[in-house]
Amino acid sequence: MDISKKAKMNIFLMWLLIVPIGICIVYLTSPTKPSDWDHYIYFLILALLTTIFPFFIAGSLMVLVQWVNLAIFLKFGILAELISMQLCILPILFHMKLTKETRYKLYYNSFMFFCISIICGSLVLWIGYEIGTLVINEILLYGSIYMLLNIVLNHLFLYLREVFTGLKPKFFTKDFSWDFICLIITLPFGISIYILEGRVGPIAFILLGVPFLAITLLIRMYNDSEKVNTDLNKASEFGHQLAERMTTTEVLDMFLRRMSDMFPFDTGYIVDNVDSEFFILRAIEDGENKELEYVHEDIKYSLAGKGYEKGEPILYNKQAEWTHMKPPFLADDMQSVMCVPIYRNQRIEGVLVLAARAKFAFESYQLKIVHLLCSYFAVSLEKARYVKEAVEKSEVCDLTKIYNYRFLDKQLKLDMSKLNNGVYSTVSLIMMDIDKFKAVNDTYGHHSGNLILQEFAKVIQNEIGSNGTVARYGGEEFVILLPNYSKLQAKNIAEQLRRKVEQTPFMVPLDLGEVSREEIIFITASIGVSTAPEDSDEGMTLLRNADRALYIGAKQAGRNRVAEYVK
């Protein structure tokens, strides 16, 4: 919950004006004083121990301390219960892992439990309860009223806090339901320890308190194992999702995004090392992707570089543990940090750094899961690289080393889509065909023909450069895509290519005769030009138009010339 500084200040002032003064007033007006409280220290120790071992149920933090405080109220009254509850707030808030930004919760919870103690105790005393009574019917009645009222007021104050800070909460939540269930379970314990302590003395804390704490610890251990199993299941699902990603960009983007869903970090960084140089490959800060650049040496001598050098996952629970090797990319308010190496083929290639503003934000078992996920990540990244290489290889002509028809078809669709969406104003297409290429093969052999195709592709690629896409269409036909080129510009380029081809000597071996030798030959090309949207707004039609211009306007007109498509 994010609230304004003004709201936080108001909460602090409300606590300052009410709680310290209120405790003094309760002390002065209390019919019993601490000097009269026999065995109170045992109750207080039991209450504190109960708050030290909380657990989660369905995502809700459960602290079963109210049953002990019920017994304290029944035996000693409002002041004793008030003191116990205020002391128990400290371990409860420790488990909530407060930061400087959320410290206001300490004051609000202190204020809230102060009011609850006063209201519940006063009401139960007003309707007739007598402190220290051992009449079982009265204990059951007033104890039940006290506990039920305590839960209702607790959630009412939490509801009002969220309304006060500008949120739109619900009163009846799953937390309310779980608290009510815990009331039903723990109410008999509270009444029993109160009665038993009155009958047998401090031995009651061994007979009831120790078993209750043991049960609480068992529930906590089971709860922790459930959390581990849940996170492992999520990690397994995460690994499968990573494996399904086909590109390195998809893998990188998904990795940090899904990690932020699983673990409570505020910033995350993938630090890569290429040719002994560190750099930030990916970064996410408060849910937003960031582009960061830092000097190699600043990263090398930070905890990221140390983690890379050590090659083992490291967990820091507070800033004092790592501030002497603070990375330049970590903000000053970060506390908890995970530094996990990323291995591929038993060789470390980078480091994952996760940081949180809260102290002790990460569990030790989470470090192991993150280490496992880094292995999934490295394998998925390597697979994506192999897929990319395979795709690129499948889209390149083995002979000429330029793009093939598969890539041409995909690129033509992409360029036409950009044209239709207004990204490009025009798209021109040049189709080239080597004249009398069959005669070349018949005269010099197919090996010489392949050499000519290779050199021909180099000539075109060198002339076009990065201005367009060059692909082998099939056989001795080649296609050039020129985004944002008008038909006139495309014709001029086609004419330059025609002259370049005509003037280029091609060296071919003569393997068909008795004596092998080399010979210089010259070739020519016929060229057709078509432009979108002038000639067509559909990719394959544009291709056919250029092909028609090539054969009717160039080939049939005598070859070695450029022809444009005319409707």
State the CATH architecture of the largest domain: Orthogonal Bundle
Q: Output the number of helix runs.
A: 17
* pLDDT averaged over residues: 85
Strand content is 15-25%
Q: What is the rounded Rg? A: 39 Å
Strand order of the largest sheet: 5-4-3-8-7-6
Helical content class: 55-70%
Low-confidence stretches: none
Main structural class: alpha+beta
The number of distinct structural domains comes to 3
Measured between the Cα atoms of the first and last residue, the distance is 67 Å
Instruction: Find the count of extended strands (DSSP E, 2+ residues).
Output: 15
The top level CATH class name of the largest domain: Mainly Alpha
- The geometry reads as elongated
CATH fold title of the largest domain: Arp2/3 complex 21 kDa subunit ARPC3
Main beta sheet, described?
6 strands, antiparallel
Descriptive notes:
The structure is a single chain. The protein has 567 residues and is of the alpha+beta class. It folds into three domains: 5-228, Arp2/3 complex 21 kDa subunit ARPC3, CATH 1.10.1760; 245-392, Beta-Lactamase; 405-564, Alpha-Beta Plaits (2-Layer Sandwich), CATH 3.30.70.270. 57% of the residues lie in helices and 16% in strands. The chain has a six-stranded antiparallel β-sheet with strand order 5-4-3-8-7-6, sandwiched between helices. It has a five-stranded mixed β-sheet with strand order 10-11-9-14-15, sandwiched between helices. It has a two-stranded antiparallel sheet with strand order 1-2. α4 runs antiparallel to α5. The relative contact order is 0.06. The model has no long low-confidence stretch (mean pLDDT 85).
